[in-house]
Design goal:
By secondary structure, the chain is an alpha+beta fold. Helices cover 65% and strands 11% of the residues. The protein has two domains: 90 residues, Alpha-Beta Plaits; 199 residues. The chain has 14 helices and four strands. It is elongated and about 75 Å long.
Length: 315
């Protein structure tokens, strides 16, 4: 379930309470008149089944409570309450299938913003992947994939397309493009420095590399993996499941491809560089395509479930 804590202007408290009481799947309604000081207003709290969360939040925003007051939402990991169990049973659908679009937009907003921390993770991940590429070391490639933060902007683009949010799309694409550009540029310099220290060599880059040569040799399986990874990552994000392992899958041919392009560029190997860039672009496109289609599918499925529930006679 979700826990909502609101500061409501006094002239809208009754409307907010009626909305909460009329929303199926709510419980534990608390009203504290005049308790809020900044901004001034009444404090209203309630719990709501995840399946009914988007509907309730939409109604509260229609009352402009988010503009003149505040709405804070927390996930309840554990609750002992018969009333809460009844509320979840009353709400349509399953909690894991429900998408809280406001929560998704907020999460992708934070993770898709270009920042020093995001850029640092991108650069460090690409440098680690560069070591893995040159040494043909799968362990280093996996380590780089775990560090890479690029799924945030990718998810931001998917969310922006489905929610018709051009500002989120622009911010996400900017973070994605600038992040990869900075990472490739920094890793090219890193590769040159490693070569000067005799730690990297062109012979290593040109070797057979059975564990990592797929990174710069895109094929149909590259696109298939990108589609599967994009769908898995999006489902992980919308269902609030842990995305750590999914993040590794998402990075499988993005960060390593950027690293291979940087190392190849440092040695003037344009064939490998363009192959890596092609792999990178193919997988970014595949991930965004699958993520967007997954969100559209979830939206259609949820609307269908809610429509069927509304048509069923109430007991």
């Amino acid at each position: 379930m979700l826990h909502l804590r609101m500061i409501v202007p006094p002239d809208r408290t009754d409307e907010a309470v009626r909305l909460i009481e009329s929303t199926v799947g709510t419980a534990h309604l608390v009203v504290l008149p005049g308790a809020a000081r900044d901004p001034t207003g009444d404090v209203v709290m309630c719990d709501v089944a995840r399946e009914a969360g988007h509907q309730l939040l939409g109604g509260l925003r229609a009352l402009r409570i988010d503009e003149d007051g505040s709405i804070a939402v927390d996930s309840i990991d554990f609750s002992l309450s018969t009333r809460a169990e009844e509320a979840e049973a009353e709400a349509p659908g399953e909690p894991a299938d429900a998408v809280i679009w406001e929560q998704l937009a907020d999460a992708t907003h934070e993770e898709s913003t270009l920042s020093i921390t995001y850029s640092a993770f991108m650069i460090l991940a690409t440098m680690i992947a560069a070591c893995g590429v040159v040494l043909d070391n799968a362990v280093l490639i996996v380590g780089a994939m775990a560090v890479g933060p690029e799924f945030g902007p990718l998810a931001g683009v998917c969310t922006a397309i489905v929610q018709h949010a051009p500002k989120l799309a622009a911010r996400s694409l900017f973070a994605l493009v600038v992040g990869f550009a900075a990472a490739i540029a920094a890793t090219t310099l890193f590769s040159l420095a490693m070569d000067a220290l005799d730690l990297f060599s062109q012979a290593q880059l040109d070797a057979d590399r059975p564990n990592t040569k797929f990174i710069w040799q895109p094929d149909p399986f590259s696109f298939v993996v990108a589609l599967l990874a994009g769908a898995a990552g999006t489902l992980s994000l919308t269902s609030a499941k842990s995305g750590a392992l999914v993040g590794v899958a998402i990075s499988v041919t993005t960060v390593p491809a950027g690293a291979n392009a940087a190392v190849a560029l440092s040695y003037g190997d344009l064939g490998q560089m363009w192959g890596s860039v092609e792999q990178l672009g193919l997988n970014l496109f595949g991930i965004m395509l699958a993520g967007t289609l997954t969100l559209y599918g979830q939206k259609m499925l949820w609307n269908t479930q809610r429509g069927r529930w509304r048509r069923e006679p109430k007991a």
